[in-house]
Design goal:
The chain has 291 residues and is an all-alpha fold. It is 75% helix and 0% strand. The chain starts with a helix and ends with a helix.
């Protein structure tokens, strides 16, 4: 018995070490290749130049247009997914019949299994023409359609995890709120949601990371025109879309233009890392408020 437990412990330890080694390897590749890139391109210009044209004759290596494109589509996606996903979670947990919850929740999670290339073509061929009926000046490639469809894609991440967090709240809190005369709506949004804030924040972080790293939707529907703008009606380019563009094989391997994907990837990694830490800090402060 002890031998079996020892073997299981070694297997679990090996799995953990493999995960750590892979993560360290990815970070090492990003930093090493980016270091080679920044030996030829000024770090100051990289973060302050407002043009990103490494594949053009007049080359500029300012990452700001790609960052703003990534941030713009992510904000739109979260603005769509958070209210809808949280509302679905509260409804399933507080209002829906148990049998209804049992078969609806798996159906919602199917959205996460749909290939993102399908979402991309849906945004391009359905959502954009529909929005152009109300916004005639909208471009055929734009950040708004891509962001909306990205929001639809990440709804299951927020609704499913938030519903699990709400379901895990002790029933005593719910009963105490009802005993004090609270309505079901007041109990849900003034008692349960704050009590489940840790799990809800975790779901938002996961959804944010998924939206920031999304590739095919923005590559198909948002266009490939890096520009420093907050206008969601025009074509933009995200960091992931640019990496796909360079990785198609037209750029010589090892060239300065090719190394831009590592610099962009490192920026995306640091951007996501910073967002996760900010979210963790907000979550910690929010939990202390209700303890």
């Amino acid at each position: 018995m002890k031998l079996r437990e020892r073997i299981i412990e070694e297997i679990l330890l090996s799995s953990a070490l493999v995960t750590i080694i892979i993560t360290v390897g990815i970070i090492w590749v990003l930093f090493s290749e980016s270091f080679s890139f920044f030996q030829e391109v000024s770090l100051f210009d990289f973060f302050t130049d407002t043009q990103w044209t490494p594949l053009f004759t007049n080359k500029h290596f300012g990452i700001l247009p790609l960052l703003t494109g990534t941030l713009l589509t992510t904000i739109i996606a979260i603005a769509v997914a958070l209210p809808i996903g949280l509302t679905i979670a509260v409804y399933l947990n507080e209002y829906a019949h148990k049998e209804f919850r049992t078969w609806v929740k798996p159906l919602l999670e199917v959205l996460a299994a749909v290939p993102t290339v399908i979402y991309g073509f849906f945004a391009l061929t359905v959502v954009t023409p529909f929005l152009q009926l109300f916004i005639p000046g909208m471009s055929g490639f734009n950040a708004l359609s891509a962001g909306i469809v990205m929001g639809i894609m990440i709804i299951p991440f927020i609704s499913s995890l938030s519903e699990d967090a709400l379901y895990a709240v002790p029933k005593s809190l719910r009963e105490a709120a009802f005993g004090l005369g609270s309505t079901r709506f007041q109990t849900a949004f003034r008692v349960l949601v704050p009590a489940a804030s840790s799990g809800i924040t975790a779901s938002v972080i996961l959804a944010l990371s998924r939206a920031i790293g999304e590739t095919m939707i923005v590559a198909i529907a948002a266009g490939q025109q890096p520009r420093l703008t907050a206008n969601p009606l025009v074509p933009i380019e995200t960091i992931t879309a640019f990496i796909v563009q360079v990785s198609l094989g037209d750029v010589p391997h090892g060239s300065l233009e090719y190394k831009t994907i590592f610099a962009a990837g490192l920026t995306l990694f640091l951007f996501t890392f910073a967002l996760n830490n900010i979210s963790f800090w907000i979550n910690k402060k929010y939990r202390q408020q209700y303890e």
